[in-house]
Design brief:
Largest sheet: none
CATH class: Mainly Alpha
Number of domains: 1
Structural class: mainly alpha
Shape: globular
CATH topology: MetI-like fold
Number of helices: 11
Strand content: under 5%
Number of strands: 0
CATH superfamily: MetI-like
CATH architecture: Orthogonal Bundle
Helix content: over 70%
Distance between the termini: 44 Å
Length: 233
């Protein structure tokens, strides 16, 4: 219990004093995870909608691959992205290994299948007759897709929340492709792991609490937007 209270106390004073390193690490966490979530939404929602509404050979295989990707271990993703971006890898000439951009790429690989899979499920659960009714009213294909996405906006927001939650809390991929470099790629999860390895459990607890607070506040904003659009009983 003493360790927990020490962590809470340190977290409080770090936030009150505006510790420069903690502020830098927290902002980088939001920058990396926020960018990855945005890219995952821009890719995952259209792709999930296509998988839900179109019929083509191999569709079941594609959906099963997406569903499998929803459970990818972050450390495996980190290994794959590191191999691709390493100096001798296929994309090594970009020179982005151990950079925030490399971390964003790895996190997109983690969050993308989550957003895609949940979007596919959200569109598929809409009543089949709804699509026929929209088409019967003379809507174009794009109008139909937009109307279906509007009807599924609550689960689509849940997909966004799941995507953000999946990347803001991961450590394996960020550590492998980012390197936990002070002032460059250190985020809250990697900083917490480093402090634990150094035996600074109080500071590690404080960083963990700050991460939980940050994740809660971001998800609170998403949840308020989600519930605002919820039909009133």
């Amino acid at each position: 219990m003493d360790l927990i209270w020490e962590g809470i106390s340190q977290a409080f004073w770090l936030l009150i004093r505006g510790d420069p390193e903690v502020v830098r690490v927290t902002l980088l966490t939001l920058q990396v995870s926020g960018s990855a979530t945005l890219l995952s939404v821009l890719i995952g929602i259209p792709l999930g909608t296509v998988l839900a509404l179109t019929r083509f050979p191999g569709r079941s295989l594609a959906i099963s691959l997406v569903n499998t990707g929803m459970g990818l271990p972050p450390v495996v993703v980190g290994l794959f992205v590191a191999v691709m971006l390493w100096r001798n890898g296929p994309f090594g000439f970009f020179g982005i290994m151990y950079s925030p951009l490399a971390m964003v790429i790895a996190q997109v690989v983690i969050a993308g299948p989550l957003v895609t899979g949940l979007t596919t499920a959200a569109i598929q659960q809409l009543p089949p007759m709804l699509r026929l009714q929209i088409e019967a009213l003379g809507a174009s294909r794009w109008q139909m897709v937009l109307l279906l996405m509007r009807e599924a906006k609550l689960p689509l927001l849940a997909a966004l929340i799941a995507g953000f939650g999946g990347v803001v809390s991961e450590i394996g991929a960020s550590m492998m492709v980012g390197g936990n470099i002070l002032g460059q790629t250190r985020v809250l999860t990697t900083a917490t792991a480093m402090e634990v390895s150094k035996g600074n459990f109080g500071l590690a607890m404080a960083l963990g609490i700050i991460l939980l607070v940050v994740a809660y506040l971001v998800n609170l904003v998403f949840t308020m937007a989600q519930q605002r659009g919820r039909p009133q009983p």
